[in-house]
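Thread amino acids onto this structure.
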């Protein structure tokens, strides 16, 4: 019963708080009370909250600062209203000072209201994750997780971080992610995305829990498009240390296996993961991928109906009919032409890859090794030679081998 009440009451409360926070933004941006602004919804909403502060805010010691700020707001509004009835330099200066103070107080009230919202939201999410929930509560839990993901995506906030640490929210999210018997795949995926959000929020604080815990194994084992997408995001955020952990825990063969999934979305994201590992991985990780016959798998993907050759993208661009004229126009603006041409090339390459996700995938992997952060120069050269040898072994014809070898040599330095 308590949980059902929470599901019914919490959203309206948060909706009111969000409206009050927006009122603070409006007042901060336009603190003047000229004309009829004194009757504006922003002023009225905040003054109504101040009127009810004795009954609403006095029960929570965390809201004492908010109560004081609302009282200060009421005083400033009264000062501004009284100064409008008078003329002269003193009244003008009073209005200027009070207007500036009103803007600052509105900003402070907005921050306090956001802190209030965060306490309510984190508390509700923590309780929902730790208490057993029925199937009918899944939508509510998904909503709370999505709300949390959105909040941490805004950027770092020390008070929010303190709330997360005190509530041990990361451990609760990890427990849900790693326990398939207690929650649906949908909730586990949302938990994984919340973990990735926390890493982006403050990598220095939360990365250790990812590296030392079972998160990575759980993501690979789940083997869904969202879980592999989160894994790619974590690799981009944590870089080589996470790739080292993936390799040492024996997860690379499982990731290579996903390249053969029946689900196209999983194959595409598994390839993205391979590219990320190629960029950040050290020699041991690259060796592990090659030992799993990665190049043969990539050749087969490149041979599929979603293939294509980026080396021929110049011909692909000219098929639009307008590109030649655009090049001529850009030639007339000197050095700017190079930048415009490069931007256009990247846009068209991105569009091509969206419809041909495995185009030139062997060469793209080779380029990641070439420009990445994990390998020494001599290791790059040695792996490039290995790739060329394995391409010839995996190709079904001399023509196919020649095309892929040319792409590898064209796409990376000698």
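Threaded sequence (414 positions):
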């Amino acid at each position: 019963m308590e949980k059902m009440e929470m599901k019914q009451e919490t959203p309206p409360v948060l909706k009111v708080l969000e409206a009050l926070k927006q009122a603070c933004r409006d007042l901060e941006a336009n603190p003047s009370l000229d004309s009829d602004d004194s009757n504006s919804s922003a002023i009225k909403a905040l003054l109504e909250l101040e009127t009810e502060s004795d009954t609403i805010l006095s029960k929570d010691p965390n809201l004492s600062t908010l109560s004081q700020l609302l009282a200060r707001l009421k005083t400033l509004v009264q000062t501004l209203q009284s100064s409008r009835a008078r003329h002269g330099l003193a009244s003008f200066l009073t209005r200027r000072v009070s207007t500036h103070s009103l803007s600052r107080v509105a900003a402070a009230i907005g921050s306090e209201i956001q802190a209030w919202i965060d306490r309510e939201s984190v508390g509700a999410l923590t309780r929902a994750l730790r208490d057993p929930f029925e199937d009918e509560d899944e939508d509510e839990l998904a909503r709370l997780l999505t709300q949390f993901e959105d909040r941490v995506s805004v950027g770092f906030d020390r008070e929010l971080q303190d709330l997360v640490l005190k509530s041990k929210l990361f451990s609760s999210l990890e427990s849900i992610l790693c326990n398939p018997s207690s929650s649906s795949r949908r909730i586990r995926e949302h938990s994984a995305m919340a973990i990735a959000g926390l890493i982006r929020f403050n990598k220095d604080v939360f990365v250790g829990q990812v590296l030392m815990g079972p998160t990575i194994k759980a993501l690979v084992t789940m083997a869904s498009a969202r879980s592999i997408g989160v894994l790619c995001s974590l690799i981009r955020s944590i870089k080589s240390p996470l790739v080292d952990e993936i390799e040492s825990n024996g997860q690379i063969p499982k990731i290579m296996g996903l390249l053969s999934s029946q689900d196209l979305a999983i194959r595409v994201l598994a390839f993205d993961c391979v590219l990320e590992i190629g960029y950040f991985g050290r020699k041991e990780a690259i060796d592990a991928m090659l030992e799993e016959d990665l190049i043969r798998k990539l050749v087969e993907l490149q041979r599929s109906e979603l293939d294509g050759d980026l080396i021929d993208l110049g011909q692909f661009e000219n098929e639009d009919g307008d590109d030649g004229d655009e090049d001529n126009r850009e030639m007339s603006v000197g050095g700017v032409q190079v930048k415009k041409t490069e931007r256009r090339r990247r846009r068209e390459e991105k569009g091509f890859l969206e419809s041909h996700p495995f185009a030139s995938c062997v060469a793209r992997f080779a380029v990641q090794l070439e420009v990445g952060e994990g390998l020494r120069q001599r290791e790059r050269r040695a792996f490039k030679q290995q790739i060329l040898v394995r391409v010839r072994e995996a190709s079904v014809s001399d023509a196919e081998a020649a095309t892929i070898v040319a792409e590898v040599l064209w796409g990376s330095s000698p």
